[in-house]
Every structure is written in C-alpha cells, then in structure tokens.
C-alpha cells in the first residue's frame, strides 16, 4: 500500500488518522506541525500527505506550498476544523494550492479512508 505522512498538531486527530491508515494497510507516520512534517518528508518521502491547516510553527497552507515546490506530483489531502479564522474558507485555498481533496473536521475514519482511496486511485 502507500506511505502516508500525517501532519496535525491535535494528538487525538493524528492518532485516529494513524490508526485508520494502518488498519487500512498503509504505512503511516505523523508530525505535529509543518516544520516537522516537511523535515520528515525530506528524510523519507511519502506517497500521500494529510495535513491540518491551523497549526503552530508552520501552518498547513505554507506546508502545502513548500511540499508542492519540492514534490510537484505529491498527493495531498488538507483537513481543517475551521480554527480561529473560520470565516476564511481555507480548504478552498488549500485546493487552489494543490490539495487534491479536503476534509472538514470532524470526520470519521471511513470518510478518511474513502478520501485516501480516491486520491491514490485505489
């Protein structure tokens, strides 16, 4: 299956994603923010990145732009619960920056797996 990198500062959400992807047969690893996520990606590239938008240190939109510059064909799913800037439709911005799919929190493990299968063409 695929190597998936999950970037989310919310420990509970990150662990749920790691568990769902591992159960789905994927190799999954996690990072707490965009800085850590980009470093992990450079060390060990993934087939798919799932990134939150609102995070400390480096938020998701900057992370998507940085990953897209170094890996133009990388598959990306952006996730967000809205955060403090909920009036801005950040998931639409994430799609404009290159995310193939977006999910609004809260979501279920099956919704995540459906998005992963769709993006990976499974």
From TrEMBL:
This protein's name: Response regulator
Record InterPro entries:
Bact_response_regulator (IPR050595), CheY-like_superfamily (IPR011006), Sig_transdc_resp-reg_receiver (IPR001789)
Which Gene3D superfamilies does the protein's record reference? 3.40.50.2300
Q: Which UniProt keywords apply?
A: Phosphoprotein
The lineage's top-level taxon is: Bacteria
4-aspartylphosphate: residues carrying this PTM: 52
Cited Pfam families: Response_reg
The UniProt record lists the keyword Phosphoprotein: yes
Please list the GO biological process terms of this entry.
Answer: phosphorelay signal transduction system
Q: Does the keyword Phosphoprotein apply?
A: yes
Query: Where's the Response regulatory domain?
Result: 3-120
| SMART domains, A to Z | REC (SM00448)
